[in-house]
Each structure stands twice: as C-alpha cells, then as structure tokens.
Hints:
This protein starts with a helix and ends with a helix. About 15% of the residues are buried. By secondary structure, it is mainly alpha-helical. Helix 4 crosses helix 7. The longest helix is centred in the C-terminal third of the chain and has 32 residues. The radius of gyration is 25 Å and the shape is globular. It is built from 8 helices and no strands.
Amino acid sequence: MMKLAIFSTAVATTAAFAPSNSPRVGANLRMSEEESNAQQPDFSPAEINAFSESSTENSAGAAAINGWVADESLPCFGLPGAIAPTGFFDPLGFAQKGISLNEVKRNREAEVMHGRVAMVAAVGYLAGESISGPFSIVGPANDQLQQMPAPAFALLTVTIAAMELKRATIGWVEPDFGSWSKTLWKLRDNYYPGDVGFDPLGLKPTDAEEFANMQTREIQNGRLAMIGVAGMCAQELVNHRSIMETLTFYQKVYSGV
C-alpha cells in the first residue's frame, strides 16, 4: 500500500510542461497601386533603419532568455519539462489557460528550487547517516539538526537567509511600497526561472535545445527527489530508524530471519 500511495503521489504531483507546435495561417492582401500609394505613410530611410534595428533587438531580447520565448498559445508558455508517458500533465490546473505568465514563471521557479534542495537533501540523508559529522552527530537525519551546536546552527540560518535574499535580488522586481500590489511576487521579465547565474562547473549549455533538455532532466530528477525525501522523512518519523537501518530491518523480515 505504501508503494502504491507513493506512486499515486508521484503521478499526481508531476506537472509537466510540453511545448507544442501550432500552425500559423497567413493572409495575402492585394491592393491596387493607387490604394497602396494612398495608404502607405512616408518614412525616411533613417526612420526605417531605426524601426528595423528596434525590431531586431526586441526579437533577440525575447529569445535571449536561454533560447526560450514565452508563447501563450503553448502549455505553460512553452517552458520545457515534459517526458513520456505523461507529457503535459496538469490535473490541478497550475498552468491552465488564464494563468498569467508571471504566475507560471513563479510556479516553475518554486518547483526548480525545491527540486534542487530535495536532490541535495536526498544525498544528505544517506551521507549524513553513514558518515560521522564534525560535531559527532549521529542517528537518523530527522534527529540531527537539533544536535548541532547553537553557533553552527545560527551560522547555517544566516547563510540560508543570505542565499535567499541574493536570489530575490536577481529574479524579483524591487518592491514598490507606494503601489505594492503591482510588484508583489513579480519576477523580472528577463529572468529565466531558476537561472540565478551560479554555474561554477560550467555545465550550462549555450545551445537552446540542449538547455531545454538539461532543464527537463533537472526538473524530472528534482520532482523524483521531492517525493523521495518526503518518503525518507515520513519513514524516519514513523520508526525512528535511519534509512539503511530500515532497509536492513525489512531485509531480515522478508528473509524470515
């Protein structure tokens, strides 16, 4: 039953986003030479060049967000993240029609960042319970935080707060206290969800397609990690054993030892 519940939760919480291709229909308008001359405004060559350069810059700026251009006709505005067999799967409607671009980006930001924390936590659960820490902390990972000395715990808290504040200054619009409703929870237009500029190993691809594929892999692994860490935490709250102790215990149970 536990495995069935975890599998059901995995399917229900996987909100994948897949871009889809939509045909474009063009219309040809024919005008007589007199109508064309009568309706066509006169622009100087300098004005035409300025307009052309402006259009090019706008197009390049829109596509410069890691190769992604928001398209409201696509699910989740075309953000990557879907794989077979679910494809675009959004039963709770977090990316349904009518949801604003800012809200979709904010939901994706939350998903990516929580997925990264969960991936680190999954490794931390196993490593922290297998290796003795610098403060002789032992036991299940759920019980290790309260074993930290007060100065170390305070330093950890300040570090996390500083990292979150730095992320907020990168991705979020500065608050306008005179009209707070316009800037509350608003991300910058040129900010890609989760891209805070931290890439010490240089793993970020420069090609748009490769970046989208890497984003899909990261999101999918992050979703799995969130479910896995939730299971680890719940298991340790129930039996107060470490992960490996629980595996050994059930191995003996099912072996008839």
